[in-house]
Amino acid sequence: MESIKSVFFRPDPQAQVRKCNQLIRQNTRKLDRDIANMKIAENKAKNFIIQAHRRAQRNPSQAKQAEKDIRVFARELVRSRKQTTRLVTSKAQLNSVAMQVQEAFAVRKIEGSIRSSVGIMKDVNSLVRLPELTGTMRELSQELVKAGIIEEMVGDSLPDELEEEDDEVETEVDKVLGEILQDKMSKVGATPTTPTPVQQQPVAEDEDEEDAEAMLDQMRGRLEALKS
User: Fold this and answer.
1) Does the reported pTM lie above 0.90?
2) Which one of 14, 78, 104, 127 has the lowest number of neighbouring Cβ atoms within 10 Å?
3) Which DSSP letter does residue 151 get?
4) What is the chain's Cα-based Rg?
5) Model confidence over 172-186: pLDDT tens digits?
6) To the nearest 5 percent, what fractions of the chain are helix, strand and coil?
């Protein structure tokens, strides 16, 4: 029935703009959730680095393993930050699409016709390739094609991920470690220390070490799962 209607009746512009706005809002909420999750992942990786650094200082025999763990967590932090930057850029593109779509429908209402937009098509094509939004962005692109705002898109498959050079990654890792550990040491140096009863100090250290070990085990398990 819907296919027969589409042959004899033009789509309702108001229904089209509502559908487009709904899909844009849906994608915006998805990006907001993903950005928030990446921020949480960044903070966890940062805490793992600090815990591993403390473990190396308290247990010189574990310093070598702790150093390896620190660099693993730092690489995870670098990846999380790059992903966050990519998601924020995508959200800006989506906001641009939203404004251009509203403008296109407004022009259609005034002039009675609509012109395809190369700018919207470029942004939509970029967002369709984003793994987090592939399904709903493809649906939005179909609605925009029906409305005549963009032309039929081809080649919307996911792009090949470019592998970063090891030197670049290691440079970023060094920067991250310098940023986190230097900031941590400066805070420690600036904070006045208070005497702690001798009988309570070993207990506190044991608890910190147990917490650190538990977090390290969780992170290693997640990393192994990602590799497999």
Assistant:
1) no
2) 14
3) P
4) 26
5) 888 888 888 876 555
6) 80, 0, 20
